[in-house]
Amino acid sequence: MGSIGDFHAVTDASKCLVGKVPWWKDAVFYQIYPASFKDSNGDGWGDIPGVLSRIDYLHELGVDVVWLSPIFESPQADMGYDVSDYQKIYAPYGTIEDVDALTSACHERGMKLILDLVVNHTSIEHEWFKESRSSKDNPKRDWYIWKPARYDGNGQRLPPTNWRSYFAGPTWTWDELTEEYYLHLYAPEQPDLNWDNADCRKAIYENTMRFWLDRGIDGFRIDTVNKYSKRTDFVDAPVSDPTSAHQPAPEMWCNGPRIHEFIREMRQEVLEPYNAVSVGELSNTPHPAQVLPYVSAAAKELDMVFEFSMIRLGTGDGFGAKYIYQPFPLSRLKALTSTWQTFVEGTDGWTTVFCENHDNGRAVSRFGDTSSPELWRRSAKTLALWQTTLTGSLFLYQGQEIGMVNMPTTWGIDEYKDIESSRFFLEAVKSGDASRVEAIVGGLQILARDHSRIPFQWDTSPNAGFTVPGAHPWMRVHDNYRDINVARQSGDASSILEFYRTLLPLRRKYRHLFTHGLFRLLDPMNEALFVYMFQSR
Ligand code: TEU
C-alpha cells in the first residue's frame, strides 16, 4: 500500500479505478498482545523494546498498522484492561520514550501505530475512582455509577439490580465507606465510568485520547465502545437463568439511549481533528441494522467495528453458559461470513475481517483440524486463504501467521491465568455440580482467552525465543514450540508463514475483488465445502 496520506486511489491489476478510499480500508492491521510478543529484558513479560526489535518482521510480513493491546499503568486485574493511569506505561512494558520510539519506527517504515482505548471503565486504582469513592459529595462522585442498596423482606441487603457481570457474579460491588454499590460490567476491579456526566467525558477525551494523539499515535482500537450509554431506569432483567441470582442484561447497558450521541461527540471533538482511525469493539450487537449506524460514513461515528457473531461460534452465550461448548456445522460459519461480508453492500459503511484476537481460542484449533501436522498446516492455510480474500479491513492476531494452536488439553487449570477463565471455573466449582465443572473445563480447553495469550513462538531456543533461556515466562510456553515457530517457517515455501507472505501482496494486487469486492456465497448448505466468489463492486 505505502500510502500515508488520507486517501489513495484504489486500482486493480487491470487499472479499473475503484475510487478514492480512506487509507485504512486497504490496510492490514496486526494485533500485538504485548505481554506475550517479545521480552527484551528477561523478566518473562513482553515489552515495547521487544516489539521494536521485531518491527521489521511485521513490515516484511506486509503489516500496515500495529495495534497494541493496553500498555498503560495497571494493577493487571484484567491484563491492562483495567487502567490506573492512562498517561503512564506499566513499567514492565517499558517507558513512554519506548512508545515514542515505536511510533517513529512504524512511521519510518510507512506503518502506523494504534493503541487500545479502554474508557468504559477504569481500574479501582485510578485517581478518579479513588476520589469518587471517597465521599458522596466528592466532585467526581458522579463520574462513576453509584446506587443505594435494595433490601428484601427480611432486611437482607441486595444489589440495585439483578444483572450478571461478564466475569460471573453481580455487576455491583458494595462499598463500605459510603454505603452504596458501584457498577462494573466486568470485574469488581473495573468500575464503569459515567458517560452521562459531561465533565467525565471531557476528561476522558483530554486525558486518555488527546494525550496520546499529541504524541503522534494514529488512532485507537476502542474497547467495549457500545457500552458507554446505559439505560437510566436501572431495573431488573428478566430471569433467563433460574439457577443464578444474576441475570444476563445486555439490553440494560449495551447500545443505550445516548450511545450514538457520545460516539459522534468523541469523533468530532477528538478523532476528527487528528484524523485518527477508529475501530470499535461491538459485542452483544448481532444484527446488521444495529451495527450500520456505527459504521455509516455519513453518521460520522466509527470507521470500523468488530462484530462478534463469527468469532463467538461454539460459545454458549456471552454470559453464564459462555464456556459450555456448542458444536456448530460449517454451514453456520458460512452463513455468518456471508451476513457480515454483505451487510454494508449498498451503504456507505465498512466491514472488518478477523478470526482471532486476545479474547478467543486459536482459530486453527476451533475451525480446523490439528490432529496431524499435515492437517494442521492445511487447516491454517485454509483459514489464511479465507481471511485474506474477504472484503473489509483485515486484522491479524499475533501467531495466526504461523498457525499457533490452543494450549494442550493435558495442561491443568493452573495454566489458565485469565480472570474470566478463573471466575467461570470457580463459579462451576462453587455450584458443587461435577458435571458443570467438567463442561466448563472442556469449554475452556477450546474457547478460553488464555490460548491466544501464551508466548509467541519465534524459534527453537528454550522459551521459544520469546524471552531468554532460563527466564520464567508469565505464561507457559507451548510444548510444540520447536515445531511451530517463525524461524522454522521462514524460507520454507510450504509453510503457513510463507503462505501469508504470498497472500498479502495478492490481496493488494486484486483489492478490487477482495478488499473491495462483493462476496457471493455458493452452495450454502454444503457441509463439506466452503465455496464463494467475488465480483468487482
Ligand atoms: O472485551 C469486551 C467483551 O465484552 C468481550 O467481548 C470479551 O471478549 C470478553 O471475553 C467477554 O466475556 C474487552 C477486551 O477485549 C477484553 O480483553 C476485556 O476483558 C474487556 O473488554 C474488559 O475491558
Protein described:
The protein has 537 residues and is an alpha/beta fold. The protein has helices at residues 48-53, 55-61, 96-108, 127-134, 198-214, 250-253, 259-274, 288-295, 330-342, 363-367, 373-389, 419-431, 434-447, 486-489, 496-509, and strands at residues 7-11, 17-22, 28-32, 65-68, 72-73, 85-89, 112-117, 146-147, 150-151, 157-158, 172-175, 180-183, 219-222, 277-282, 304-307, 352-353, 393-397, 518-522, 531-535. The strands form six sheets. The chain has an eight-stranded parallel beta sheet, with helices on one face. A three-stranded antiparallel beta sheet has the order 8-12-11, with no helix packed on it. Helix 5 runs parallel beside helix 7 and helix 12 runs antiparallel to helix 13 (434-447). The longest helix is centred in the middle third of the chain and has 17 residues, at 198-214. Mean pLDDT is 95; it is low at 1-17. The structure holds 1-O-alpha-D-glucopyranosyl-D-fructose. The site of 1-O-alpha-D-glucopyranosyl-D-fructose has 14 residues, from loops.
